[in-house]
Write a structure and sequence with these properties.
133 residues, mainly beta, Jelly Rolls, 7-stranded mixed beta sheet, 5-stranded antiparallel beta sheet, 12 strands
């Protein structure tokens, strides 16, 4: 773990040397993509991995965007509908979604309930992506 205390993602919790356990119920919540997404929840960064426990309210989601780091999304609750590189998917609890680096994607919670997901990204960039134009 490096000595640098600054997180790449504004508002995220940066793991400090010797800090090994994080209670995501008490870590400050941030927006997963303030310019394009309703996802919000706690986010923790290490040197090489960024993790977040995110929630999207029913019927809301993320507009098309991309980021230079790859991403994994594990669905815990609800139904997540997405478009990844032009392909439409639907994921339910227990589903694991892979989004390659620099791939335009969008997605959100179905209208019938919130979606909760655990997400991991490599640390080459912060949590936030870039809204597609």
């Amino acid at each position: 773990m490096s000595d640098a205390a600054a997180a790449r993602t504004p508002g995220a919790k940066r793991a400090a040397p010797g800090e090994y356990v994080f209670d995501l119920g008490t870590v400050d919540k941030i927006m997963g993509g303030p310019a394009y997404s309703t996802a919000h929840g706690p986010c923790v960064e290490g040197d090489r991995i960024i993790v977040g426990l995110m929630r999207m309210k029913a019927g809301t989601g993320a507009e098309p965007h991309s980021h230079p780091n790859e991403q994994w999304i594990y669905i815990l609750e609800g139904t997540f509908r997405a478009v990844i590189d032009g392909r439409t998917i639907e994921a339910r609890p227990g589903s694991l979604i892979y989004i390659p680096a620099n791939t335009v994607h969008s997605g959100g919670a179905s209208p019938d309930g919130d979606v909760v997901f655990f997400t991991c990204k490599d640390g080459s960039y912060g949590l936030h992506g870039i809204k597609a134009t």
